[in-house]
Fold this protein.
Amino acid sequence: MKAFLILEDGNVFEGTSIGSTKEVISEIVFNTSMTGYLEVLTDPSYAGQAVVMTYPLIGNYGITPDMESAKPWPDGYIVRELSRMPSNFRCEGTIQDFLKKHDIPGIAGIDTRALTKILREKGTMNGMITTNENYTMEEVIPKLKAYTTGNVVDKVTCSEKRILEGKGKKVALLDFGAKNNIAQSLNSRGCEVTIYPAHTTAEEILAENPDGIMLSNGPGDPKECTAIIEEVKKLYASDTPIFAICLGHQLMALATGANTHKMKYGHRGGNHPVKDLQTGRVYISSQNHGYVVDTDTLDSKIAKPAFINVNDGTNEGLEYIGKKIFTVQFHPEACPGPQDSAYLFDRFIEMMGGEE
């Protein structure tokens, strides 16, 4: 069946329908990872977006147990070539069946290089995936321009708290759309991890006397999370050690008076170099974000830049003055991606007083 990707700038790509045949409007973003497509599909940070995979062949090892959450989250999936016959001893099915099962429309057979070039030159934009051959641009374009992702954190957070047992430090993990490997990275280091829904109050978390607090990744514009930011302010005011990743990093910055803005096309992939400003060392990192902290709005008495992106100079991390708080924009748990910066979890445990 034919499928069409219509961009809000008027560009149209024709390909083949994969997955669900329903029509969807979403923000179109691209990911440059060469592997790990299943972890990308199950990353809650993609809620409200349709993902273009720039690597040309996707699905060659099928669906395996390498999932970062219980289900896929993107609104749509866009690939150059989809492997129809995956081959891997761990394979449990195909991507096309996985997309159908979860009612996610996709499109294959389009020129993803040309599409990515448009998104890089003009910036991230909205688009529609449809199998309707009788669409009219006059009707579609206004709908595309009107679409916003809205507050998608509420969509992806857990509904109730749960605990990963451990004999070490007690960590409270606020789930704004957390990837599984964040909790696992702490739990594998002995921590007892209590995962809380996004709108849990600071009072409830602090009443449990955690040794440390983890603010997770998540989707959407951080400024939409107004109620959460108020709770983060209270967590900042406590003396509890805090480590934050991605959206959590942005929320902490907003809670302490800094500003954020939307990037032209964001950072999504497993090959982004970040520089530690204290040591000068460069790490290759996994990233997935479309917003960034404005370092020129930082209060120098509150926080200072700790990491920068080597490619474009944008902020990749903050260290908070006089507090046991540090935050990073990239993913030290890296699923998929390099493990270069996994040491930050060890640094967090040391901040909490070290292993018991």
Notes: The chain is about 25% helix and 35% strand. The first strand starts at residue 2 and ends at 7. The CA atoms of residues 270 and 337 lie 5 Å apart.
